UniProtKB/TrEMBL annotation, chain A:
It comes from Thioalkalivibrio versutus. The lineage of its organism: Bacteria, Pseudomonadati, Pseudomonadota, Gammaproteobacteria, Chromatiales. Signal peptide: none annotated. This is Membrane protein. The keyword Transmembrane applies. Residues 8-85 form the Sodium symporter small subunit domain. InterPro entries: Na_symporter_ssu. The chain crosses the membrane at residues 18-39, 51-73. The keyword Transmembrane applies.
């Protein structure tokens, strides 16, 4: 296997690790905090918001936005590191 | 100036703007027509994507749905935004790297199969046409309501405007028009929300107002709303109700996967210059969508609060606790005339009682203690909440005109995006890709424009004569996208060994099981009376609502594709190399 193929594989593995972390956060804020454990979480208040309700109707959306930008930023770093970035 | 003239002026001015932009941004080449010459800045593209994505359903219906569902309405909020995470992480950058014009083109090339491409075209056309019918109807209703013209007149005006700017400008014209439409839409949505948030809580930011205390009181708005709803026999606003936890989970997942698989949204990411722009562009799209989507919960909660407190101004069951029918505000009277709001004085006491008479315990208690004989708001269409909101809050006429223009902008921008996806599927995938590979660029452009014209006429006709299934159709469109296109696209990128046999079998199984499940409960091709099982939680298989079935259809697609792939031979080497190359932004070394 050539040097380039090895580096390509390492790039893809690093990429998949980043994807896994991002998707775990995506699942956590929406399906776990916003749905599955939302009712017990409602006992905690965030200002006038019960916390579970806040995640379902506000917090998950804010997290999604941040998540995409963090992913884009980390990917740019990764692209440069493995020298596959665009001009 | 009366309200009608004002509305006409505002809506007319926005139409002139859209057509002006189309003339300025005419498309000359196929690349400009399909993907705007790949020259759109990621922030501009994000804004256009937001307008493309947010349809009449987001603008008009969603806050009303949330108002009556409460907490579980979060399924729509999370589902329709979380899909962008999937799109940004799992599809957009790779499809941009692949560098073609349409979604079926990717499927056809990746799975080296014209059959796969044709199945993708069929799925795309079915879901886009069903979706566009709802938009055309939205345009017609918004027009006829505000301008007091017949539905047909409103619809034809809307069709003409879409025809001019979509056919003339292609993707380039559509993109710039959608940027203008986004600005009108978001302004129209937030202005009434800000006014109402100030009135109720003193906080001008709706997202913060919803978590604030009521004006002149120490009670939080949401706590007061919980109490009010419970007092009337409904479930507490911030707790599970209206749908089960299982269905909330499945609906959220189906809407997310469906969003990520909608072809007219995916092609937006073909219009940016580079792979890295595709990633960032999805983020910007979600910023612009999030602006409306985080405002919607405040609009919904405040609308139901205002409504209940209008009907029940004092303590329930007391003399001054009820609104006398004679004293009802003018906006109620106006909406009664449309038939979307109706009262019936069941116990003939001259005042209105609004409560949950489907709750047997509460209904029995109310009858015994208060002498109530059923909820007296007998019709309350959820779709009127956003449109009536400025009137309920007593806002000036220009705000009402603006909301009308915003609703029309939402419907037109989505219709245009869908029409372009249909036109490109027909001219590029079917004509150039399959039947007439040697067609010249000029004739392909002409074919695209003709296809778009035919699609507009067809959608307009069905918008006038709807098969009577507006809400289900949206669910079907999402279910189909979730069960057919998304899994296939994702496997095409992340599973190098996925072959054409697996992809075709997966798409067919996902598509057919979802259709079968929906038709079982909604009737064959939505004809009423042909449903084989009752469309109720008791009748649903394992309690799964047909609107959330797309998530399960997607799982069937994945599993079938995997099994078939294992049983058949692996894809040729050049296809595996192709998959390797879409995974990295720059391959030439």
């Amino acid at each position: 296997m050539s040097q380039e193929d090895l580096s390509r594989q390492a790039y893809w593995r690093a990429h998949l690790r980043l994807l896994g972390i991002c998707l775990a956060i995506w699942f956590l804020v929406s399906f776990v905090l916003g749905i599955l454990v939302s009712q017990p979480l409602n006992a905690i208040q965030l200002g006038g918001y019960p916390l579970g309700f806040w995640f379902a109707q506000q917090g998950s959306i804010y997290t999604f936005i941040i998540l995409i930008f963090v992913y884009a930023w980390r990917m740019n770093v990764l692209d440069r590191k493995f020298n596959v970035h665009e001009e | 100036m009366d309200q009608q003239t004002l509305s006409l002026l505002v809506v007319g001015a926005t139409f002139a703007l859209y057509i002006g932009i189309a003339i300025w941004a005419r498309a000359g080449t196929t690349s400009e027509f399909y993907v705007a010459g790949r020259g759109i800045n990621p922030i501009a593209n994000g804004m256009a994507t937001a307008a493309d994505w947010m349809s009449a359903a987001s603008f008009i219906s969603m806050a009303g749905l949330i108002a009556f569902l409460g907490f579980t309405g979060g399924a729509y909020l999370m589902g329709w935004t979380g899909g962008y995470v999937l799109m940004a992480l799992l599809l957009a950058p790779y499809l941009r790297k692949f560098g073609k014009f349409t979604v079926p083109e990717f499927i056809g090339d990746r799975f080296y199969s014209k059959t796969a491409r044709i199945i993708a075209v069929i799925a795309l056309i079915v879901m886009s046409v069903t979706y566009v019918i709802g938009q055309m109807r939205g345009v017609g209703i918004a027009f006829s309501n505000i301008l007091e013209v017949p539905l047909a007149t409103g619809l034809i005006a809307g069709m003409t405007v879409v025809f001019i700017y979509a056919v003339l400008g292609g993707m380039k014209g559509i993109t710039y028009t959608q940027i203008a439409q986004y600005v009108i839409m978001i302004f129209a949505y937030t202005v009434p929300a800000v006014f109402i948030a100030i009135t109720l809580t003193g906080n001008p930011i709706p997202q913060l107002g919803l978590g604030s205390t009521l004006q002149g009181s120490d009670t939080y708005l949401l706590d007061a709303l919980d109490q009010t709803m419970v007092d009337l026999g409904f479930h507490a606003y911030t707790e599970v109700g209206g749908m089960s936890m299982l269905n909330m989970f499945l609906l959220t997942l189906a809407l997310m996967i469906g969003t990520a698989g909608l072809p007219h949204v995916i092609i937006r990411f073909f219009t940016v210059p580079r792979v890295r722009d595709a990633r960032k562009s999805a983020g910007w799209a979600l910023v612009f969508i999030g602006l409306l989507y985080t405002t919607a919960p405040a609009v919904g909660a405040m609308a139901i609060w205002n409504l209940v407190n209008t009907v029940h101004p004092g303590e329930i069951g007391t003399e001054e606790g009820h609104l006398a029918y004679e004293d009802r505000p003018a906006w109620m009277d106006r909406w009664e005339q449309t038939g979307l709001l109706a009262f019936e004085d069941k116990n003939e006491d001259g005042v209105i009682q609004y409560y949950n008479d489907a709750n047997p315990e509460f209904a029995a208690m109310a009858e015994e203690q208060y002498g109530w004989e059923g909820s007296e708001i007998v019709t309350l269409d959820r779709d009127i909440m956003v449109l009536a909101n400025p009137e309920i809050a007593g806002l000036p006429g220009w705000v009402i005109a603006l909301v009308a223009a915003g609703g029309i902008a939402a419907a037109l921008s989505t219709a245009a995006g869908l029409l372009l996806a249909i036109a490109s599927a027909i001219s590029h995938d079917l004509l150039k890709g399959v039947f007439m590979p040697r067609i010249s660029e000029k004739r392909e452009l002409m074919a695209g424009r003709i296809a778009m014209g035919v699609a507009i006429l067809f959608a307009g006709y069905l918008g006038l004569n709807p098969p009577g299934f507006a809400a289900e159709v949206v669910a079907l469109a999402f279910g189909l996208a979730a069960a057919s296109l998304f899994p296939t696209l994702m496997m095409g990128i992340f599973m190098k060994k996925m072959n054409k046999e697996g992809a075709i079998a997966g798409m067919l199984v996902g598509l057919l099981t979802t259709l079968l499940y929906i038709f079982t409960y909604k009737g064959w091709f939505f004809f009423s009376g042909t449903a084989m099982l009752p469309d109720t939680p008791e009748g649903w298989l394992l309690g799964v609502n047909p609107t959330g079935f797309g998530a399960i259809g997607a799982v069937f697609n994945f599993v079938t594709a995997y099994i078939v792939m294992k049983l058949t031979k692996e894809p040729p080497q050049d296809i595996q190399d192709l998959v390797e190359s879409v995974r990295v932004p720059r391959t030439e070394s």
